[in-house]
Specification:
135 residues; 40% helix; two-stranded antiparallel ribbon; alpha+beta; single chain; 5 helices
Length: 135
C-alpha cells in the first residue's frame, strides 16, 4: 500500500489567488458574432413567417451548455442573464428550440483536460473558441 502524498502550501497568497481564479471566466464577443446572433427572418421577413436563429448562435448555446454541464432550461436562463449583464438587446431562444436545432447540427467539441491556466472564451463570427493563458 502506497503512502498518501501530502502537499504543504508555502505561498498562501498564490494558492488563494489560484482558488479564486478557478471561477474567473472571460467572455469575448466580436461585433460579427453579435450580428449573427439574433433571429433572421425567413422568406424576406414577411408578416406571419417564422424566424430562426443562426447556426452560430445555436452552436454557441449548446457549447456553453456542454462546458458548464447545464440542462437546456438552465442554458436558456444563463444566456438570458448573460445578455442582460452585457446590456445587449438580443433575443434568446427557447430551450425547446435549442434541443430541436441541436439535433440537426453537427457540433464537435475539443474538450481539453483541466488545467490551472486561465481560460478565455472567444466568440466571433466563426463560432466559439476556447483558449488557455498565452494562446
Amino acid at each position: 500500500m502506497l503512502k498518501k502524498i501530502t502537499y504543504r502550501v508555502h505561498n498562501w497568497k498564490d494558492y488563494n489567488r489560484s482558488l479564486i481564479n478557478r471561477g474567473n471566466l472571460t467572455l469575448w464577443f466580436s461585433k460579427d458574432a453579435l450580428k449573427n446572433w439574433g433571429p433572421k427572418p425567413l422568406n424576406g421577413g414577411k408578416r406571419g413567417h417564422p424566424f430562426t436563429y443562426s447556426n452560430h448562435y445555436i452552436e454557441l448555446a449548446l457549447t456553453l451548455r456542454t462546458l458548464f454541464r447545464f440542462p437546456l432550461r438552465a442554458t436558456q436562463g444563463f444566456l438570458e442573464g448573460l445578455v442582460s449583464l452585457l446590456g445587449l438587446k438580443l433575443p434568446v431562444s427557447h430551450y425547446s428550440q435549442l434541443s430541436r436545432r441541436g439535433s440537426q447540427l453537427d457540433i464537435q467539441l475539443k474538450i481539453k483536460k483541466k488545467s490551472k491556466a486561465i481560460t478565455d472564451l472567444v466568440i466571433d463570427s466563426t463560432g466559439l473558441k476556447i483558449y488557455g493563458e498565452g494562446e
